């Protein structure tokens, strides 16, 4: 029998409140990223790449929500690439996409066989697999007349990439929220750039997305990324606010206080030149803010039209 006691009622109310708060937070993070990087403009046709994982489902869901209320018009087409991995449940995505009534295209290309044939046994298959997938998705974007390609990478992916590049690549380089594709013909956007993975995980559970497992190809997860992920998660547990601070650092770069001679003209530094704002002062004590304090000074300027604004109401007929 169903429990309808005041206690369970209370619990249900609290859960609904928390879910609502989470949905609002994600919507705001996505809206802010779109605004800050001018990701979506009037008339855009956004191709949302849908893998069947939690991130891409959340991306599509939130963009569809914003599309309904945004003060600009843009269209969305969801695209899934069926790479013919053994056991891929072909009906799941079409069923879901039909049920929400979004325009979609399922592209079938057997990259799985190519990868298995070309890559020697025991070697990692991801590099070739991603290259093939990228090429196909760019081609499909052109066929569909998409002006932007939206990917489901989030803030944790961006930070992990930063550390991977530092630890193993010797580069200070993360994953940009917006970029030109490597064939130079498309603009790629990452509207989840400000969203935390744990929020997306909870959102995916709350919305009951029909998740497709991501290990169908049989490839081992990238061990280095796994190590970096655990390192960041460990910091997050022990030092609340550190992840937020690290992400803020990506938006607050001082080239004169790094050591890249291609980025800053150190050779011409001479007395009399105005010191760089935000840089160190050579001999003074270092001062760092409380990591959990809000960072008012790094807010990006807001655009006049925000995707989070409501669509203006049509004038009423007299
Ligand atoms: S995990 Fe599998 S599907 Fe994903 S990129 Fe690697 S090989 Fe391709």
UniProtKB/TrEMBL annotation:
Which EC main class describes this enzyme?
transferase
Cofactor(s) recorded in Swiss-Prot or TrEMBL: [4Fe-4S] cluster; Mg(2+)
State the family it belongs to: Belongs to the TtcA family.
Q: What binding partners and quaternary form does the record give?
A: Homodimer.
HAMAP family reported for this sequence: TtcA
Q: Which NCBIfam families match?
A: PRK10696.1
- Give the protein name, as stated in the record: tRNA-cytidine(32) 2-sulfurtransferase
Q: Which organism is it from?
A: Paludibacterium paludis
């Amino acid at each position: 029998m169903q429990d309808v006691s005041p206690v369970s009622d209370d619990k249900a109310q609290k859960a609904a409140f928390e879910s609502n708060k989470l949905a609002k937070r994600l919507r705001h993070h996505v809206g802010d990223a779109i605004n800050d990087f001018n990701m979506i403009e009037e008339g855009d046709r956004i191709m949302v790449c849908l893998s069947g994982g939690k991130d891409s489902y959340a991306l599509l869901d939130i963009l569809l929500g914003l599309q309904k209320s945004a003060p600009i018009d843009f269209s969305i087409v969801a695209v899934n690439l069926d790479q013919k991995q053994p056991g891929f449940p072909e009906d799941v995505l079409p069923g879901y996409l039909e049920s929400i009534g979004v325009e979609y295209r399922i592209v079938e290309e057997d990259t799985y066989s190519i990868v298995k044939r070309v890559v020697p046994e025991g070697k990692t298959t991801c590099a070739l697999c991603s290259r093939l997938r990228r090429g196909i998705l760019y081609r499909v974007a052109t066929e569909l007349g998409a002006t932007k390609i939206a990917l489901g990478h989030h803030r944790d992916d961006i930070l992990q990439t930063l550390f991977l590049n530092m630890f193993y690549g010797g580069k200070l380089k993360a994953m940009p929220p917006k970029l030109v594709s490597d064939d130079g013909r498309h603009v790629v956007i990452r509207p989840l750039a400000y969203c935390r993975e744990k929020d997306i995980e909870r959102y995916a559970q709350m919305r009951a997305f029909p998740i497709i497992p991501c290990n169908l190809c049989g490839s081992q997860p990238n061990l280095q990324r796994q190590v970096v992920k655990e390192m960041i998660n460990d910091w997050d547990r022990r030092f609340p606010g550190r992840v937020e601070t690290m992400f803020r650092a990506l938006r607050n770069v001082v080239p004169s206080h790094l050591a890249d001679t291609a980025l800053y003209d150190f050779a011409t530094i001479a007395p009399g030149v105005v010191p760089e704002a935000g840089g160190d002062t050579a001999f003074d004590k270092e001062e760092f803010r409380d990591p959990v304090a809000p960072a008012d000074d790094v807010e990006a300027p807001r655009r006049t039209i925000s995707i989070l604004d409501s669509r203006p109401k049509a004038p009423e007929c007299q």
